[in-house]
């Protein structure tokens, strides 16, 4: 739980200046291209931006022939196609979708005419990257810029304050602009969990354990053109910890390249997540050159997909361990996702187009499915009946069960906090920061404490709150605060009051391979789904997308799942069975041994080993395994794997032993709380474990047979 101390910190950041207004010719018709009337409530506006500060933004131009692009993507990615694996180069892709040269030139002229310096403009085939002072950007967009700070990360960013205007003739050529009104959080949704004492009863996962369990043996990469990569959001791995990790587990020294990586550790950025990524991608993809691609703190997945296309050498496998809830993508774009001229689906769709372009060039993209089950935590509505048989699943609570697990806190503006299940979302988060509301909750608890009833906020081993009462829900006394216009009552489940589930994007994209997490109990036992109910400290993500249609490659597998696993499914109103199902595959994601610098602000040793859980462990490990298969293909003069999913789902039908089927476990919890509804592992494909985990030798043999 964030402390109120951050408010005092924020008060120190006050920037006071004016702004320049552009005076467009009165005959030029202007239109709004972006707008920040309100901003996500996890940000605070702390003052006007300094005129001299430099900002960067990307103007994404409207592309053409997108239907042709997608047709080619599926054709080249389908093993049954005669064009399978016949990838395109960057120029060939540009020839399909790049805007007309006249449109690009019009936008460039508009920039130069408004005093944007030419050396601050970089033009790509379908977008333009601009670097300019706040003063000149204010004039360009006829707007002002303000400084905003995240209450979760304390990172400051410069964004517009109000509408941004462009001539209508220019707006017609622009899809969206990144860097003006988007609010990207500098935290990962696939959250990292640390267990430093290594006392967990499960097996400790090391590179050697993964290799032996999945049959990878001692293979190493030998092809120098084989590149794998990690995408990182403003964080940096510890070079000392990587060397220490390799020494501890007798690994060959890795070959790492970067995109001018900034060492942000002294400023407080994260090293733990990138340490997982770099240590397990490079150790599983042994001896294969690994690119560490670092984004800035206010860039996200669409920026990564744009940036990595121009990197040389081009990586053939990329692992991403970051995500936002599909509904929480609206936090990227304020005002209900409309300020970029598009909604959240539009932002996602542009990202999917860039994923297609990467796949057309031969890249395999593997993404963590999430660590919050099917429910979500930060993006959860909380509207799910808690499972009282799994009260306090992380342990440490005073009580072992409760007679009424949830309450509803209703505000006059119509918003509701379903406590504690919705504790991580913005509504509940901000409500508990307000001392007046907190006092009202305490008053509700006190009013339900007497000789007949005990009511309190219980706390688990990680200090998460749980609602305990010895009274039944219908006997709890409601509380009303007329001054605050607040009402607190016992929770009654209403399907219309809020969604039950929330998948993470980009893990829900049909154009990537989503990777879930399992637990390895021993070298001779089958894996189970990773969950807090079975000793893990995360829950593997999965379910059905709310925004992405179901791709044809998984239609047969999902159809059988819906039929054969019907008794294990949640209520039919809670998911769309015609949409994208997640994950695609799974791999061990519990009790990984990683190395970190003892001083988290340093990239040097002394270092120590820690145990971590997460789909942010399974995705890079799987990425390294597929890089080894790419190495075999390249060494035999065959094309790389490219987009994996059509191949994987075909393999599951034609040669099922390429996967280890996971049949035990469920994803009904979100890492803190457990719901009565969710998805369970079943024979065959399911939303808890996908197609299963990888049998390397069988999968490699199958692929080498298919990729002639």
TrEMBL record:
Q: Record keywords: Calcium included?
A: yes
Keyword NAD on entry: no
Needed co-factor(s): Ca(2+)
Q: Which UniProt key words apply to this protein?
A: Calcium, Hydrolase, Metal-binding, Protease, Serine protease, Signal, Zymogen
Instruction: Please name the GO terms of the biological process aspect recorded for this protein, alphabetically.
Output: proteolysis
Q: Which InterPro entries match?
A: Peptidase_S8/S53_dom_sf, S53_propep, Sedolisin_dom, Tripeptidyl-peptidase_I
Q: Which Pfam families match?
A: Pro-kuma_activ
Binding residues for Ca(2+): 661-662, 684, 686
Q: Which residues are the active-site ones?
A: 273, 277, 616
Q: What is this protein called?
A: Peptidase S53 domain-containing protein
**PANTHER family the record matches:** PEPTIDASE S53 DOMAIN-CONTAINING PROTEIN, PROTEASE S8 TRIPEPTIDYL PEPTIDASE I CLN2
Cofactor details (free text): Binds 1 Ca(2+) ion per subunit.
Q: Which residues form the signal peptide?
A: 1-20
Q: Which residues form the Peptidase S53 domain?
A: 204-706
Output one GO MF annotation: tripeptidyl-peptidase activity
Q: Which species expresses this protein natively?
A: Dictyostelium purpureum
